[in-house]
Here is the input.
Amino acid sequence: MIRFTPIFAFALVTACSSPPSQPDNSLQVSAGGTNLPVIIRTASGARRFDVEVAATLQEQEKGLMFRKELADDGGMIFPMEPPRTASFWMKDTLIPLDMLFIHTDGTIAFLKSEAQPYAREPVSAGVPVAAVLELRGGRAAALGIREGDRVSWGGCAVPAEKRTTDLNFCPAS
Here is the structure.
């Protein structure tokens, strides 16, 4: 017969406990475990990004805060359903970001370039938007992305890939 003493029980619980968790600075995605493709059609061609989705209120509140880096083709999209006037700030954001506010017709309504880390001034397009896309600071200028360019995501962005997601945005051309 095994006899459990308080010391043995404590040792057993301690041995089976998980190690303390570390902050996660990796790119995780809420949309089915894979990144969501986003295509921006510019005057010089289509640009593809594979971004995380901030779908829940908690994910939207956290956004890209505390990230130390962001891939050239990475970012985060904040879908707005129903469309609404969105306001973002850079509190607790460590890296500069480009913020693209996307009209319901798929055009970029407003582009805030190189939003400064830790800034508390709100950034908004001042009109209802279908989404806000955040990219690494300076990417929009480097790729020639401008207000008025067209954005799509999910299966609509890459129909040949036959993506299965409920996060499709297919504005009429």
In short: The longest helix spans residues 6-16. The CA atoms of residues 50 and 68 lie 18 Å apart. Confidence is low (pLDDT under 50) at residues 1-32.
